[in-house]
Design a protein that fits this description.
- By secondary structure, the chain is of the alpha+beta class.
- The chain has 2 domains: 318 residues, D-Maltodextrin-Binding Protein, domain 2, CATH 3.40.190; 216 residues, Dipeptide-binding Protein, domain 3.
- Helix content is 26%, strand content 21%.
- Strands 9-10-12-2-13-22-14 form a 7-stranded mixed sheet, sandwiched between helices.
- A hairpin with a 6-residue loop joins strand 24 and strand 25.
Length: 549
Amino acid sequence: MFGLVCVLLEVERHQMSIAGRLTVCLLAALIWTGCSAGPGDLPCERDRRCVRYGISADIPILDPHIAESKEAGIVLRQIFDSLVYRDPDTHEIVPGLATDWQVSPDSLQYTFNLRQGLNFHDGSKFDAAAVVANIERIYDSEMPISYARELLGPLSQYEVLGDYSIRLTLASPFPAFMDSLAQPFLGMASPAALEAYNVLRHQFHLAGTGPFRLAEYLPGERVILRRFEEYRVNPVLYSERVGTEIERIEFLITRGEELDALIELDQMLDVIDNVSPSEAQNLAGNSRVQLLPTEIPGTAVQFLFNTRREHISRREVRLALLLATNRVAIIDQVYFNFSPVAWAPLSESTGYSHTGYINRYEFDLDAAQELLAAAGYTDSDGDGILEHGDAPLSLSIVLPPWGGMPAVASILQRQWRAIGIDLRIEPVPGATRLASLIRSGQHDLLPVESYGIDPQVLNPVFLDNGEYASSRAAQPQLNELLLSTMQLVDPELRRSQVYTIQALIMDEVLILPIREAVRLTAARADLANLRFDAYGFYPLLHNVSFADS
């Protein structure tokens, strides 16, 4: 056994704009040198050893240490193993590339014993040095800003204790650390591949230890994976295979097109990711199709009230809006009851949702009108819109095109108009423009979606230095509670404080919760063992097979 200590010095990270990231992706596409599936292969549609998986959005970049999109994670989960995993059913942390671990009493040191005898897809050895290579790449100042770096939190030092033992030291307690290590964006990549290929080319030469290896990547079109015959990790995520073993996975980018799922499943695809609720309703009960609703842990799908704005700054107005919203009708009309109504900031699937607010703010139009009248709102000119002094009660809402949000806003517009509130809808084409509008703070309601199991998913929305800070008046007590929760390691005390945080958010009526996120996947009926990991987005395809007829 030997000891090697390396301190990760905090350096000014290379800043890369969104436009810069897109440039990286475009350059990567121009220099692509992917491999073909190989001569003599049967077309996938005639080969029961191949699964065709339709992904609903493009993959900006396919690199675990740079990627942020859930669509990238769908593919990365098949190629890379992480040090630990979360059990899909219990959410408990379970072994992955690490067989076991110890945490110091002060929760600052995590010592991992690693699996032995494993090779990456390119034949290089997995060991503690490989873990070091991945950590150093994530911290490399030449790398773009990454979600992987954020996941590592206050990691400050690593210490190699032996060929298969490593200690990671944090600068401060970070109870979300093990959750971070379980995510596909901290999958372990081959050090040989990391050294051989630069940041642009690496995504075309990925080598992990996962159940499938990369065979071809054509950006904007497809990713083809082949089974890794030497796979030896086998975490408890996987069950026994039944029927014909799958040798190849073809991920096909559908770019969010509205597909006729039944025709596609008959002719082109075996799985369709993220089908719309209306399409799912059409498929329900069809014997040729299985519908797989999967809960997505994180914040509820909700709107943030911009408490810096004139009308929304009044709690009674926010409460009136909440009471004037018939969420049951929205779930029925837009989501066909595939998603439950959200009552609290965190979804039930996180395990942290505050159940004390179930049915607390039910639809009550009379109570909403009384609140507005008591706050001094009247319709003095008879145009059907309430005013406070000379200011009409006219509100603005920012709407992205995904997740049924336009339909939700149309219903809100009708429901609120019934009590004299004018809601103006501003559609936005994509995430870049949406982020810009959030930072501007110029709208009354903004959509909020933040995904993950650990309650720190609340931080980007509600911390005073978070991305929504310009769209929310400062809340010192809330900010202090969030910051302390980030370092609170006692699980029961932490849970209690998370409940207190949610109570403060709801009592101050800082959000309008709409629904708990559910992702709908459709698959051929004879495809067996299709399930998803604890985070809901990422399929576990190692044990998928076609049932033998």
